[in-house]
Amino acid sequence: MMTRKVISVILGALMIIAGVYCFFTPVETSAVIPFVLGIVMIGDGIGRIATWFDIRDIVRQSAWVLVSAVVSLIFGLMLVLSPVLQMSVGVFVILLTGWWILALGIIRIVHAFHLLKLKRESDGFGFGEMLGSNWWIALILGALLTIFGVIVILNPMLGLGVIGVLIGCGVITAGVNLIYLGCSPWIL
Length: 188
Known about the structure:
The chain is mostly helical. The chain has one domain (2-183). Helix content is 86%, strand content 0%. The chain is globular, with a radius of gyration of 17 Å. The N and C termini lie close together (7 Å). The mean pLDDT is 82.
């Protein structure tokens, strides 16, 4: 189990580095979106799948967490393995990114309500209370991801200008999440 925690922290650190690069070089990021985004999605998916399986026997996990990890993994593999997608850096990749951000935002909102349910079922104490106490953070992040996804889908040209920054923010957030999960004392 310690190996999974180390992998989660390493993948998280790599994602933060990649996110910072994307944030500060948005034009270059737009030129290499398929490869960078594909690698990031694969790392995010693998890290969250490993973490989900690692803690599922300890604490009841929402299947939506696993679904979002599988979505990231599938989209990442599509981008890395398809030369056609790598050559079509234009509008298609921007729209694909917008839909991915939108899907993760909606899934995060659903997950937030699952956390709220855990909190309500905990009767004010216990692990459910601790896990569900910050449900509103997941809700806010989900709403922001959903808004960003819709903006990119509805205005791809605007998305082209800001996609590197949006990807950088999303990758940094995912990296911090993986490090947090890898360092959490309640995950054995």
